[in-house]
Amino acid sequence: MQNEVEQEKGISGLKVMVIDDSKTIRRTAETLLRKEGCDVVTAVDGFEALAKIADHKPGIIFIDIMMPRLDGYQTCALIKHNQVFKNTPVIMLSSKDGLFDRARGRIVGSEQYLTKPFTKEELLGAIKRYVTEAA
Fold first, then answer.
1. How would CATH label the architecture of 2-124?
2. 43 forms bridges with which residues in the sheet?
């Protein structure tokens, strides 16, 4: 019991960015994360995300692969090439669970790959794995 309380404290107040062109996915992730005490920032595509990242400085970023204008791979690569954000964990989200997609995500610098629909446990597990380990 004590350990669970400590884990929950670990992500409370954490800034999380969710980038997805699906309103449903953004809302689902935002609701789950807010219940855990996270400060959630959302964006509908890579361009909007890049504009918001500098202002909000998220501790972890969840990004959909398939988006209009600037896809998840391109957005992740741009984030990872920025000196300020290169160490920010980026978790790719996709409805496809292919080996090629996972490999491509690694190439552009993502830390993990979650298949949609994701569970609350997967979302929180990724945060705990990359953010609380780094802290």
1. 3-Layer(aba) Sandwich (3.40)
2. 19
Instruction: Classify 57 in phi/psi space as left (phi over 0), alpha (psi -120 to 50) or beta.
Output: left
Q: Is 135 strand, coil or helix?
A: coil
Radius of gyration of the chain (CA): 14
Residue with tokens 């504009």: 51
Provide the greatest CA pair distance for the chain. 46
User: CA-CA distance, 124 to 107, in Å (whole number)?
Assistant: 24
**Terminal-to-terminal C-alpha distance of the chain:** 22
Q: With contact defined as beta carbons under 8 Å apart, do 10 and 128 qualify? A: yes
What pTM did the predictor assign? 0.89
pLDDT of 55-83, one tens digit each? 999 999 999 999 988 999 999 999 999 99
